């Protein structure tokens, strides 16, 4: 798989939003075979349902407030906070307030393409 970069720079307007669940949409920002960065926007009350995947995930709370559950443990995170999900742990989020996450995955999530 080749990297999705015609250059070193990407512009937000060049990427489309994709609805994923009620009140949730995502936009792939950049990716290569070993890394993917995705913006995810949540309306207040929207749920990113519990799931697992073989990818490691690091997420930054850009805005809003989220209840984040990882492996049965829940914490409330707000803008500026981060969370990390190791391989294959069940995790999900609920948007307490409308907000946005910036997710990074390694390796990339091929099923998102």
Describe the structure concisely for a colleague.
The protein has 113 residues and is mostly beta strands. Helices cover 0% and strands 59% of the residues. The chain is globular.
Write the layout of secondary structure elements.
Elements: E1 18-21, E2 24-32, E3 35-42, E4 47-51, E5 56-70, E6 73-78, E7 82-85, E8 91-106
Antiparallel strand pairs: 1-2, 2-3, 3-8, 4-8, 5-6, 5-7, 5-8
If helices are DSSP runs of H or I spanning 4 or more residues, what is the number of helices? 0
Q: Classify the beta-strand content into a percent band.
A: over 45%
In total, the number of domains comes to 1
Fill in the CATH topology: Jelly Rolls
Distance between the termini: 12 Å
Number of strands: 8
Annotated CATH homologous superfamily: Jelly Rolls
Helix content: under 10%
The stretches of 5 or more residues where confidence is low (pLDDT under 50) are none
Shape verdict: globular
Structural class: mainly beta
What is the second-level CATH architecture? Sandwich
Radius of gyration: 14 Å
Order of helices and strands: EEEEEEEE
* Main beta-sheet annotation: 8 strands, antiparallel
Give the C-level CATH assignment. Answer: Mainly Beta
- Average pLDDT value? 93
Domain Cupin type-2: 39-97
InterPro entries: Bacilysin_H2HPP_isomerase, Cupin_2, KdgF, RmlC-like_jellyroll, RmlC_Cupin_sf
Pfam families: Cupin_2 (PF07883)
Protein name: Cupin
């Amino acid at each position: 798989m080749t990297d999705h970069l015609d250059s070193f720079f990407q512009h937000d307007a060049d990427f489309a939003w994709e609805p994923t669940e009620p009140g949730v949409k995502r936009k792939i920002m950049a990716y290569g075979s070993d890394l993917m960065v995705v913006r995810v926007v949540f309306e207040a009350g929207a749920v990113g349902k519990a799931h697992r995947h073989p990818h490691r995930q690091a997420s930054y709370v850009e805005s809003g407030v989220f209840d984040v559950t990882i492996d049965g443990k829940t914490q409330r995170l707000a803008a500026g906070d981060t969370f990390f999900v190791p391989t294959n742990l069940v995790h999900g989020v609920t948007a307490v307030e409308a907000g946005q996450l910036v997710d990074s995955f390694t390796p990339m999530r091929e099923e998102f393409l």
